[in-house]
Amino acid sequence: MAKQKLSGAEIVVEELKTEGAEVAFGIPGGALLDLYDVLYKEEAIRHILMRHEQCAAHAADGYARVSGKAGVCIATSGPGATNLVTGLANANMDSSPVVALTGQVPTSVIGTNAFQEASTFTITMPITKHNFLVKRTEDLPKVIHNAFYIANTGRKGVVLVDLPTDILAGVAEVDLHPKETFAGYKPNIKPNQVQIKRVVEVLANAERPLILAGGGVISADAAEELRHLADFLGAPVVTTLMGKGAIPENHPFCLGMAGMHGQLYANRAINECDALLALGTRFSDRTTGWQLDQFAPDATLIHVDIDTAEINKNMQVDIPIVGDVKLALSGILKLLEKKRAKKSGSEWEKRIKKMHSACDSCVEDISMEGASVSDMLIKEISRILDDDAIVTTEVGQCQMFAAHYYMTRKPRTFISSGGLGTMGFGFPAAIGAKVAAPDKKVVDIAGDGSFLMTCQDMATCVENDIPVVVCIFDNRYLGMVRQWQELFYEKKYAHTGLGITPDFVKLAGAFGCYSERVEKPEDLKDALNNAFESGKPAVLDMIVGKEDKVLPMIPPGGGITGMIGTERCKHI
Amino acid sequence: MQTHIISLLVEDNPGVLTRMSGMFTQRGINITSLTVSPCEKEGLSRMTVAIEGSESELEMVRKQLSNLIEVVKVVDLKESEAIIRDLCLLKVHAKDPEARSEVMQLAEAYGAKILDATLDSVTLELKEEPKKIDRFVDLMRHFGVKQLFRTGVTAIGIGIGVGAGAGGGVEK
Ligand SMILES: Cc1cc2nc3c(=O)[nH]c(=O)nc-3n(C[C@H](O)[C@H](O)[C@H](O)COP(=O)(O)OP(=O)(O)OC[C@H]3O[C@@H](n4cnc5c(N)ncnc54)[C@H](O)[C@@H]3O)c2cc1C
Ligand SMILES: Cc1ncc(C[n+]2csc(CCOP(=O)(O)OP(=O)(O)O)c2C)c(N)n1
User: Fold this and answer.
1) pTM of the full structure
2) Number of domains in chain A
3) Residue A451 CA: which ligand 2 atom is closest?
């Protein structure tokens, strides 16, 4: 293609379109006037005006997790960029592909404390996979192309592009759509065949194999391969929080989420297995507990991960496979099928089925005897929503109630802030999710404390007709912290009470949302139906027990066989 | 704790040094010496980083450095397989003629060059393995070191195929 003479802003928008960006979440400002001037005329990109830049980043993140494509967010220089920081750190921690564009003061005054100057490049360096400060208009095609390429490949993550005003306003003759990348960036995706053979050897001979599926399985779109392998091996599957949805939780081999707030028997299975196949997980302490001698003590540990730096980081493993988990799984299956027949009817399989029947998220009609109002509300939401519905969560007890009781049936339908644990994530992530999947129901499982951190974006929902439903678990506490104070700090509730204001029903009403209070779990079904039928963004203020607790749990310092608060669990 | 020397080939972009050193800072690892210079290939620079740490820390650092987009190659240079050099400039007190001649004799024994001499000091240059420089500096402290400058280590692999050269070496 012949060279074209374009302004920096035009180049950015052209390259965004080439990279398949259809939506951008952002807020303009002085440093971005040129970019917004081009976006104004551009019909191929839907720009959604958010009410806070943190929400723009979370919405782009939510969009990415649901669509599998990089989400785009835009913020102006200085405060716009610093407001993005939490959202970018959050996305990067959870390996979610996001491309952030920020305005910057003109190159001639960078470093002079110019109006609305912040060193976005240095601030965001440790919380992004990569970032760019563009110094020449003619570099823009390569930079934007690489931003998407880097965000979307290997271990996905956040790439930020800082755009000084003179670079956006400047004109250059450029070749659009370059293919050039970095000599040193070779996302390692093809697994080593020798390692695959070793893994197959172990799995073929294991009596009690177990699969631990993490966020990497979802990011690699490898759910299908995972289910085949589990079926073929007769191996149970436990997940991390980020892996929820990698396998339908009602699959007879699924044992739910493992870890600190996991299912009692998911953790037991990890303790009992003799081969553990860990897929796309980073063995966070929330998954493994703190007594590593209780974590798969008798097992040959196999770890498949695309990031070499995750191998032997938190857990010493016996057989590592560095590469894409989808490719690794097909490689393993292919060899395994040649090696031996499908296994069924083993003792282990019988035990798995029993363990499955005791898993709170795997069984829809599990007994809720002795359960708290919060427990029952989540179970009710789980029953009401269809398989395709998307649940996002805030952070705290609400999130863990959801992890524990919500039956996730498809990948990319359980969207939660895992690594950073960012209160205020769920609602803007729901906005991004709904934009990515307008035909699906989207529900944010919220705590009152979390919702108050980003609720101003109800305005965005109403204005842009993005009907997500927020279900507030209204306990008037920063509940998760209060739970720790109750259990481990002699009930001294230091600054965890939220008082009695605001009235969430009125607050949501003032923004133009549908809103309703839910006093009892039995009333939830009608309320949710009303919310969906209203066709509007909606807020349900669900009154829950002020002192409801998320149990069972591994106490701090404990191991996976040391869960406390197991009284209500079904024991097998 | 052990000294490790890591040789990096990086894209010569602004910010690459911050990115690289930030990686160490985030992990609480102290860089004991660092040199950056152009290399045989245009557009690339070579960095030689010396750190103190355990084997497992080194392993982690190596992998994390490889993950940086602008890092083209990472090589962990073992002492036995590399030629390691440092350059030291130092000014030693030598007012007393006896001390001065002793400083000069020692300098000669170590192969240090005498760059300048005044009535009260001698300025020396020594280009050597870092350990040998350490020993020399220790000796000179005996006379009183007024000023000490070291460039930091640079290192090259022995033979072909070792070291982060633009040709050969270990690809990421
Ligand atoms: C209040 C709270 C409580 C929590 N409790 C729990 C709990 O009880 N249990 C729990 O498990 N978590 C819990 N978490 C979440 C926890 O903090 C971590 O976020 C989570 O465990 C990490 O999930 P993961 O290991 O699947 O890794 P992720 O963070 O999802 O990382 C993905 C991994 O897969 C790799 N990967 C990415 N793409 C690919 C690919 N294509 N092929 C191969 N590998 C790939 C990456 O390199 C990385 O190692 C909790 C969080 C909060 C906020
Ligand atoms: C931005 C942020 N600040 C503080 C915390 C620490 N924190 C973790 S959970 C929690 C309480 C959350 O309260 P709420 O949203 O009401 O949910 P609940 O636990 O009551 O369900 C707090 C303060 C956090 N995770 N994120």
Assistant:
1) 0.96
2) 3
3) 15
